């Protein structure tokens, strides 16, 4: 699983609050177990900052944290979750770029190249959006840049027709409760606030939309320079994390759901027939003919088995 979001979308806070809230099993037995010492220490460091009424520093450009958990699911199922936390500016460099040869310009050893490859290899990608970048952004050019960065990130990650799944996560949604009520739900809100993203990825229902608030309660506190600003309140609450983890769980279960035995047998039989035909014709042409016919036969058998 990969986490994608521009600067200020709350990647660091959401990741660590989610991990901390689910460090013990819930009523369904679902919990997140740190997969290595660095992940545990990373989460505890951020959590200590939040509970001391401070915000953790944003991830610096070029900085990259690879985090790993074991997701424990009901019935003893387990899944490794690999999350990557990078600066939002780096996400913009990857995806908000009109340069058509961007892939060729990235060195294979470049950290951004590895990040892009990681996103494309992930089974599940969480796209984080702070509504402030759309609903609260008064500069039309900046708002357009925000939507372009996220839309083309989604385009590239979901473009290859793979089984990769995506979830759009709207962060800090407690600040937009009144606006959400006026719009009548997340679908209407996203259609109005980010029409290009909505049309390309949300209206079909392929990408579900969820709202979360990792830190709902804040208090006003004077900063070092005397300027008042909002910081996490003691014993702050969170909202939407149960739904998010449940969506991840359901998405994971859909990915690992085994094919129908009868359908799988049909594909095996089709492959065997195709292989025989390819052998009869011989050469690359024969292999292509055999693969095509075998796939058609296997698909027909699999379709019939599902009825």
Automatic annotation (TrEMBL):
Residues 3-101 form the Double-GTPase domain. InterPro entries: DO-GTPase1, P-loop_NTPase. Coiled coil: none annotated. It holds the Pfam family DO-GTPase1. Gene3D superfamilies: P-loop containing nucleotide triphosphate hydrolases (3.40.50.300). It comes from the Bacteria. This is Double-GTPase 1 domain-containing protein. It comes from Schlesneria paludicola.
